[in-house]
Design goal:
378 residues, alpha+beta, Phosphoribosyl-aminoimidazole Synthetase, Chain A, domain 2, 2 domains, seven-stranded mixed beta sheet, four-stranded mixed beta sheet, 28% helix, binds magnesium ion
């Protein structure tokens, strides 16, 4: 079986030199050269069973999603992503314990994946069993209490078990996860500079902290929308649970292009759902918004899902989460410019900001719109 130090050597061999990185993986801390503009920091944690189902998607896609959701937040501020650190809790293996011998299932079947903001009611969300914290199988490579950080030597290959039927496990899982993170990091010039590795009796959890740099025009916030502004989105919405929530491209390039071309008053990435995230802009900007039903671009997946969900494609577009498109507010003059000469493809005007309230206009009739979306129960 591959050991921790073999994995460390592999990991370090995979890390290219980067002029921005003074010290990369392998020491107690990474050291980065400071940029000249405000540093953007964001973090997002993904968990097997809530944000993806490892047994279905495998660690490489899970790794890609973990990096992409973080870069989407950098995009939402129209920043340039630069570096990231990654903490993982790797599932320890299915070493049969005496109580489980004799053909008993070791683990309940994986719950249905449910991207945030899908609009599920609380009681419909998958319930995850609390993992055992007994630590009785500690003694493999790297327990949660003694595992090395990435700087100390990378993902220590502490897991000896599976991520699910058909998934790689142990060091193979760790490697595939890393390669998935690198797929996206490399595509956006992000240096993976460190992290922390743990293993436990629970499912895979991945926490990425991404760093970025504001452009010379500064970060775009949620709080600058004004009544009369036009609202745009960068792509079709809804039905992401059918696959888009795993395989999307964070809109980093689109955001930078827009920010360089026009003045954006407010912007957010759609993670909770269109209605919920427009509501976030409204709350921060102290204004309201009206969305025009006929203008909202609806993804094919939303129509597919509608065939069996009992909800209309529009409801999916308004309420499903994890589209990871951008929604933003601009002045009417800028909005007209964007319609006449769109600097990026896929732009659609979906409504306007108003003094107060959240509204859906359908067939010329304006009705209150409930900002349904994903909320973690605490
Ligand atoms: Mg966000």
């Amino acid at each position: 079986m591959a050991g921790e130090f073999e994995y460390i050597a592999w990991l370090r061999s995979q890390t290219p030199d980067d002029p921005r990185v003074v010290i990369g993986p392998g020491d107690d801390c990474a050291a980065l050269l400071p940029g000249s503009r405000p540093l953007l920091v964001t973090t997002d944690m993904l968990m097997d069973g809530t944000d993806f189902v490892l047994a279905s998607v495998g660690p490489r896609r899970a790794g890609r999603k973990a990096m992409s959701v973080n870069l989407s937040d950098i995009a939402a501020m129209a920043g340039v992503p630069t570096a990231a650190v990654v903490s993982v809790a790797l599932p320890k293996g299915p070493t049969p314990s005496p109580a489980l011998k004799g053909g008993e299932q070791q683990e309940a079947p994986s719950p249905t994946p449910s991207p945030r903001g899908e609009g599920l009611k609380t009681e419909e969300r998958p319930v995850l069993s609390p993992p055992s914290l007994s630590g009785k199988e500690v003694g493999g490579l790297g327990s949660s209490s003694s595992s090395p950080s990435l700087q100390d030597g990378g993902w220590g290959g502490g897991a000896s078990g599976t991520g699910g039927v058909g998934s790689p496990h142990g060091i193979d899982l760790a490697r595939e996860l890393y390669l998935g993170l690198r797929d996206v990091a490399d595509a956006f010039g992000v240096a993976l500079v460190g992290g922390d590795t743990n293993s436990w009796d629970g499912k895979l959890a991945i926490s990425v902290t991404a760093l970025g740099e504001a452009t010379a025009r500064g970060p775009v916030r949620r709080n600058g929308a004004k009544p009369g502004d036009w609202l745009f989105v960068t792509g079709p919405l809804g039905g992401s649970i059918l696959g888009h929530h795993l395989d999307f491209t964070p809109r980093v390039r689109e955001a930078l292009c827009l920010h360089a071309t026009v003045e954006i008053h407010a912007m957010i990435d759609i993670s909770d759902g269109l209605a919920a995230d427009v509501n976030h802009i409204c709350a921060e900007s102290a204004c309201g918004a009206v969305l025009v039903a006929e203008r909202i671009p609806i993804a094919d997946a939303a129509r597919t899902l509608s065939a069996t969900s009992g909800r209309t494609p529009l409801m999916h577009a308004l309420g499903d989460g994890e589209d990871f498109e951008l929604v933003f507010a601009v002045s009417p003059e800028v909005g007209q410019r964007l319609l006449n000469e769109p600097p990026v493809p896929g732009l659609t005007k979906i409504g306007e900001c108003v003094e107060s309230g959240l509204w859906l206009e359908e067939g010329g009739v304006r009705k209150p719109l409930t900002p349904t979306g994903w909320v973690h129960d605490l």
